[in-house]
């Protein structure tokens, strides 16, 4: 079995730039605090899964001032997402890993339910499948696992729409890949999604 690397894509949790769709509910500072909390949780779960190296693919680059005061767990590798749209940036990172003999689990930081146990299950399924995917309730995906690369998975995809997972799975079917699909999970993108945070009750303690 190929070694499995977890690639975690993340934007710096800076007020006014991180989780901007949550700002109407939480304000700029509150939205960035939630982004930081989800970032730390995602990295902790990735390390706890203990299936291979954990790499944080950062936007902007790791040496940018936006990351200067952001606490990260020890043992995390870091890299620059680089230029281009989301698909181009993800494709570069995945291709780099696969070309050096690794399999990849690609995630973001927006799904607190993407636990260490689910990451381990995805890695186990990747041993007997070409790809694994956990759909998101909004039509995207919260995890994409690959042990072979095809650029079509990342090109021509209307990112941040309800068609992302469907089009990705359709392309995999055209390639005759063996695909394992996990349960549908929730990203935290809009104010209505805040109910799916494990710590949701702490956001508005006066409403308890």
Tell me what you see in this structure.
- The protein is α/β, with parallel strands linked by helices and 208 residues long.
- The chain has a single domain (4-197), classed as Alpha-Beta Complex (Spore Coat Polysaccharide Biosynthesis Protein SpsA, Chain A), CATH 3.90.550.10.
- The protein is built from four helices and seven strands; from the N terminus they run βαββαβαββαβ.
- It has helices spanning 23-49, 86-99, 116-126, 164-174, and strands at 4-11, 54-59, 77-80, 103-107, 131-135, 141-146, 179-181.
- It has a seven-stranded mixed beta sheet with strand order 3-2-1-4-6-5-7, sandwiched between helices.
- The longest helix is centred in the first third of the chain and has 27 residues, at 23-49.
- The radius of gyration is 17 Å and the shape is globular.
- The mean pLDDT is 94.
| Strand neighbour order, sheet with most strands | 3-2-1-4-6-5-7
The proportion of strand residues reads 15-25%
Number of helices: 4
Rg on CA atoms, Å: 17 Å
CATH class annotation: Alpha Beta
Low-pLDDT sequence parts: none
């Amino acid at each position: 079995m190929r070694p499995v690397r977890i690639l975690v894509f993340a934007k710096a949790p800076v007020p006014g730039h991180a989780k901007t769709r949550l700002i109407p509910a939480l304000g700029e500072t509150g939205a960035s605090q939630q982004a930081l909390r989800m970032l730390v949780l995602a990295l902790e779960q990735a390390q706890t899964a203990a299936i291979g190296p954990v790499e944080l693919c950062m936007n902007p680059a790791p040496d940018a001032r936006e990351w200067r005061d952001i606490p990260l767990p020890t043992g995390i590798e870091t890299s620059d997402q680089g230029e281009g749209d989301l698909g181009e940036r993800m494709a570069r990172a995945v291709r780099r890993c696969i070309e050096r003999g690794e399999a990849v689990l690609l995630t973001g930081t927006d799904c607190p339910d993407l636990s260490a146990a689910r990451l381990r299950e995805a890695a186990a399924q990747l041993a007997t499948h070409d790809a694994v995917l956990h759909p998101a309730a909004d039509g995207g995906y919260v995890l994409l696992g690959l042990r072979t690369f095809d650029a079509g998975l990342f090109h021509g995809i209307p990112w941040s729409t309800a068609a992302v997972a469907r089009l990705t799975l359709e392309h995999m079917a055209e390639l005759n890949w063996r695909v394992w699909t996990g349960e549908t999970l929730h990203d935290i993108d809009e104010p209505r999604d805040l109910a799916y945070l494990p710590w949701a009750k702490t956001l508005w303690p006066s409403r308890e």
